Amino acid sequence: MLFKNFKHLFASIALFIFCAVNAQQTKNWNGKKCAVVLTYDDALNIHLDKVIPMLDKYNLKGTFYLIGSSPNVVNRIDDWRKAAKKGHELGNHTFNHPCDGSMTGREWVPAEADLSKYTVSRAVNEIKATNALLYAIDGKKERTFAFPCGDMKIGDTYFYDLVKDDFAGARGVNSTYVKLQDVNLNNITAFGQSDTTAAQMIRQIEEAEKQGSFIVFLFHGVGGEHPLNVSEEEHTKLLEYLKKREKEIWVATMVDVAKYIREKQN
């Protein structure tokens, strides 16, 4: 009888340890099951006029990748400064948003913004100039970078390698789920959204959670102003879902999540 009692005791202890370890493993995103990053590209007016007020309503923070030469940056510096003071990240999306115009289907790329015609030094200088502008706006030295069009090379050169020490990480465009220890901070995965419903985006979050991963949403237009657009209604539904699940899902800026990943990988 005593032996059986010990067997039950040991079995209970083993089960407790297993559950505790498993719970810890499934809550490895700042103590939560999953991390979600909301990113918005190209410094659109609608980001300031609609998206940031929505995020503020639910006390959620987003990352806004600004193009240094955009009139929506130059003419609205005070608004971007206010956004940064509220905890939103102003990320670097280069000065001129250069994309590789030599690729198929890139006829729309203007000559002055054709990455295939850039020198590496020009790309580096424009990125650094944009960082200087962003620092003048928000006074912050830590931020992340986003590759315009997901293009990472000039010829055979990965130009970001020459500026990576200036950033906490760089967001790419590959849509895959990655474990924390396997995240490449020089090409962070992201899921682009266009005509996507809240239900579809929620399923992507649930899949990330199931895999013990995280998800970065890549938005452009929200209710208009860009061909790649998600309706304001569906975007609001997504924010409502994230707010309801705030005890289980960590919603943070790209810079904060990148810094967390780097810390855990070291």
TrEMBL record:
Keyword S-adenosyl-L-methionine among record annotations: no
GO MF assignments: hydrolase activity
EC number: 3.-.-.-
Enzyme class of the recorded protein, top EC level: hydrolase
Residues passing through the membrane, by range: none
Entry keywords, A to Z: Hydrolase, Signal
Signal peptide interval: 1-23
InterPro entries cross-referenced by the UniProt entry: Glyco_hydro/deAcase_b/a-brl, NODB_dom, Polysacch_Deacetylase
Domain NodB homology: 34-252
Keyword Transferase: no
Superkingdom of the organism of origin: Bacteria
Entry-linked PANTHER family: CHITOOLIGOSACCHARIDE DEACETYLASE (PTHR34216:SF11), PTHR34216
Protein name per UniProt: Polysaccharide deacetylase family protein
Source organism per UniProt: Flavobacterium suzhouense
